[in-house]
């Protein structure tokens, strides 16, 4: 019974990592990418979120973002520290992806918590989340580097997690379909990374 429960928890963890957490990441990156068009373009895009009634926005944030993210993060850390990667014995591409998935997952817990503190919590304390806030944050070279590493970690974690999701949910069962999925998810990783890094550099 415990193995059945663990199987279901892992399935749920995988699902939430793609829907809704993964979808939110893509939405978040696309919103940030508007900064490439300048300060006014970014502020206009972010300002549209203020059109949503505050109480409704809170419900959406907790149901769609925070609760799924918290479960995915904490259960992911549990998996990371209890999993047994085979990179020492079998240095295959997929085993290395397995280890990188766990490493980026633990790092992202720290990065996302800090990012929420610098933005969402500061907004709750009265600050305005707009172009100049992000520009001030990344004006520090250390923070800029931290954010770039965080963005690339997030895009890798999502794209590689999507590959694992397709396998664990039985969508890609044959070696050939898994190989195709590897190419597709790698392309997704590159595209999202370019969008994310270009977005953060637009604030510099």
Automatic annotation (TrEMBL):
InterPro entries: Cytochrome_b-558, SQR/QFR_C/D, Succ_DH_cyt_b558_Firmicute, SuccDH_FuR_B_TM-su. Signal peptide: none annotated. SUPFAM superfamilies: Fumarate reductase respiratory complex transmembrane subunits. It holds the Pfam family Sdh_cyt. The chain crosses the membrane at residues 12-36, 56-83, 95-117, 146-171, 183-203. Its main location: membrane. This is Succinate dehydrogenase cytochrome b558 subunit. It comes from Lysinibacillus zambalensis.
């Amino acid at each position: 019974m415990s193995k059945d429960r663990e199987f279901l928890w892992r399935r749920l963890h995988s699902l939430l990592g793609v829907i809704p957490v993964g979808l939110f990441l893509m939405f978040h990156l696309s919103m940030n990418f508007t900064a490439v068009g300048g300060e006014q373009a970014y502020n206009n895009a972010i300002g549209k979120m203020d059109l949503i009634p505050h109480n409704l926005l809170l419900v959406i944030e907790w149901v769609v973002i925070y609760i799924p993210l918290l479960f995915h993060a904490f259960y992911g850390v549990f998996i990371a520290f209890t999993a047994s990667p085979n990179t020492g014995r079998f240095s295959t591409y997929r085993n290395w992806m397995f280890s990188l998935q766990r490493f980026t997952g633990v790092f992202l817990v720290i990065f996302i918590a800090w990012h929420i503190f610098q933005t969402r919590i500061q907004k709750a304390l009265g600050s305005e989340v707009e172009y100049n806030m992000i520009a001030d944050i990344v004006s520090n070279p250390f923070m800029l580097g931290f954010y770039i590493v965080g963005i690339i970690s997030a895009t890798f974690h999502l794209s590689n997690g999507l590959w694992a999701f397709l396998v664990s949910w039985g969508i890609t069962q044959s070696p050939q379909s898994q190989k195709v999925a590897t190419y597709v998810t790698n392309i997704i990783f590159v595209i999202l990374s370019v969008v994310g890094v270009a977005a953060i550099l637009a604030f510099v």
